[in-house]
Amino acid sequence: MKRGAVFLLCLAWLFVTLFPIYWALVTSFKPPPAVNGGPTYLPWIDFQPTLQAWIDAFSGIRGDFVRPFVNSTLIGLSATVLAVAFGSMAAYALVRYTFRVRLLAGVLFALLGIGGFLLFRDLGLSRADSLGAAFVLALAASILANRLPLPGPVLGNNDVVFWFLSQRMFPPIVTAFALYLLYSEIGREGVKALDTFWGMTFCYTAFSLPIVVWLMRDFFQALPVEIEEAALVDDVPRIRIFLEIVVPMARPGIVATAMITLGFVWNEFLFALLLTTSDWQTLPIFLSGQNSYRGDEWWAISAAAMIAIAPMMVMAVLLARLMRSGLVLGGIR
User: What is the domain count for the chain?
Assistant: First the structure.
């Protein structure tokens, strides 16, 4: 009885989850009268399907659909590779090394960063030069101060991980607006950052690093440390241990993390809205303008939406297969 009730609940939830996707897919094959004349559900029964909406999507009638798709692909893959590479190294360091960060050193970094910027501005430097000089000064001073026996709390590895995760707790508009101002200032110095490939790639790399560090830290903790210790006894450099021993053992986790990261980047809207205009506009921005491009042509909007979510649906299926095989759930210990 209980198993039957659970099965019915799961079946109902499956219907609730899949029906919006089915509705968008079916609508993409409907002719305009089948959409405007009332609800229709079954092709060849309620309406005669047509491929006109899909043809229009790729022909450019509703705008250049291919370019945003290519932009999202290039930016998403590049940002994912960079985020997983740097995030994996940071996560490995947080697992195998012990960090001690003095709170006063962090406070000193903030004070010198703000004060140095104001000082360099008073000395006549530009905003970009003042920002760069203040950052270098604050970073060098805080590193040196961290080596001193300063009073106050000392933060450890778990605090560093929490700091990474806290970056995702801020309202995104705060970070996006600050990044817009930074890119605008860089542009005034002659280096274009807004609406560029590298600007969006670096933005999404920083945006994805916290989730990569969080996920990969758990994967690295599940790996046997004895293999690395044996390699250290044989005087193998730590970088070779990471690249030739740790990375191959953690490959399933890296693949899963990359898929999740690509999903976040692919669907991100706010940063792309503020930091792009036309050249490197991504799919979410393009789709948001479809409703106003030629009106409420829901058959065409549905076709564009299905093309946009198709890669993520494939990624979800692959990720689910990895989880069922146990590769993502600690099956490589």
Answer: 2
User: Radius of gyration (Cα) for the chain, nearest Å?
Assistant: 25
pTM exceeding 0.90: no
Angle at 131 between CA 188 and CA 179, to 5 degrees: 65
Q: pLDDT tier at 175 (50, 70, 90 boundaries)?
A: confident
Residue 134 lies in a domain: yes
Give residue-wise pLDDT tens across range 100-148.
889 899 899 999 999 999 998 888 888 878 888 999 999 999 999 998 8
- The set of residues, in sequence order, having a beta carbon less than 8 Å from that of 224 and lying 6+ positions away, is 333
224 and 256 assigned to the same domain = yes
Domain ranges, residue 60: 44-99+164-333
Question: Has residue 38 got a pLDDT over 80?
Answer: no
At 39, list the tokens. Answer: 């609800």
Scored b (16 or more CB within 10 A) or e, 96-125 reads: beeeebbebbbebbeebbeebbeebeeeeb
Please state, in angstroms and rounded to a whole number, the distance separating the CA atoms of residues 220 and 228. Answer: 12
For the chain, what is the mean pLDDT? Answer: 85
Residue 60 covered by a domain: yes
Q: How much is the average pLDDT of 62-74?
A: 84
**What's the CA gap between 214 and 208, in Å, rounded?**
10
